[in-house]
Amino acid sequence: MTTDTFRIGLMFSSTGPYGSVAGPMLSGALLAVSEVNEMGPVRLDPIVVNPCGNLSRYAALSTQLLSSGITQVVGCYTSSSRKEVIPAFEKYDGMLWYPSHYEGFESSDNVVYTGAAPNQHILPLIDYLMCSHGNRAFCVGSNYIWAWENNRILREVVVARGGTVLAERYLPVGETDFAKTIEAILAAQPSFVFSSLIGVSGYSFIRRLREACVARGIDQPNAMPVASCNLNEPDLIDIGDGAMDGHISSSVYFSSLQTDESRRFVARYAAAYPEKPWASADAEASYIAVKLLAAAMAKAQSDDIGAVRRALADLRLAAPQGDVLVDSETMHLYLTPRIGRSRSDASFDVIREEPAPVRPDPYLVRFCATDCWDSSPSRLRVVS
């Protein structure tokens, strides 16, 4: 009995200003490919392309993959790159599997979203911060849609609950000069700093803020913690010793999770990539995308976009984070929100988590800004 082989595209900027994040995404996808090819139910022939973080290259590389006959592509990290390539996927009738947390408020029949939607990352984070640290926020982010939209959501929720957004600062991707921004933060004395900076910008900001606080005798992790929806283990490594601890991250996966599937994933990942063995939520989302894609193609016995979409309906997977389920209405996943606090060994303590996967609400149509997750015993539970 022969096993069907399907070509798929993998498109990640494994080098460039956010290569430390997109590199593990590619690694997670390739790990899943190797497991699928070893255990079935199909075989995958991955074609890897690298836009190098250059936004102008994404559309051309997408067209290159799709015009060669590939219909399924796992890739992109930034929202700007995702939006750049969607027209090509709609033109060629291909499917983009987008494996990153994102800001929501998007609809395309040509995208499957395997990362967290806003109700699975930013809303739990706002609840935690306002309940545990206060209601005065200072926002700093990279100057593109991810930061704009997350700050908009945060602003609406914080203000609706009686809090204040003291300021918003946006800087170019790759910017590392934060002197004026940090002086403004120290002058404002916020309850917390919400960071949607990516790549080297985020690493430099956290280092410089910690240095400035130490110089002034401020206990930064407790006085004004940095909180983020895109801070993970490889990021902590790049932040470096002396500044990687005490930050708050909202995510659906941390590599410190002590489940059987998580331990297996971490061990396989470390064995496959011993030079950079730090598994992360982004790597897991790419891993999940490839596993779900392989299962859907096996069920459909085809890589046709329509057949794969139909096969995806209510598909389940035992993932490192726990069970995930495809929501056929939105083509997003039921995922398990968690809050982590970073440690000096580049790991996270999980301090709060949902008891079960949460239905995706990418358009926040089931959400009221004055709702509080902590007000119901069925919401986030305290872990430690």
Sum this structure up briefly:
By secondary structure, the protein is α/β, with parallel strands linked by helices.
Biggest sheet record: 8 strands, mixed
The portion of residues assigned to helices is 40-55%
Query: Mean pLDDT, nearest integer?
Result: 94
- Straight-line distance between termini: 51 Å
Radius of gyration equals 20 Å
SS elements, strand count: 16
* Neighbour order of strands in the largest sheet: 7-6-8-9-10-14-15-16
Number of helices, counting only DSSP H or I runs of 4 residues or more? 12
Return the string of H and E elements: EHEHEHEEHEHEHEHHEHEHHHEEEEEE
Question: What proportion of the residues form beta strands (DSSP E)?
Answer: 15-25%
Structural class: alpha/beta
> Uncertain spans, ≥5 residues at pLDDT below 50?
374-381
Principal-axis shape: globular
Structural summary, described in words:
- Helix 2 (55-67) runs parallel beside helix 3 (79-92) and helix 4 packs across helix 5.
- It is built from twelve helices and 16 strands.
- It has an eight-stranded mixed β-sheet, sandwiched between helices. A five-stranded parallel β-sheet has the order 2-1-3-4-5, sandwiched between helices.
- It is α/β, with parallel strands linked by helices and 384 residues long.
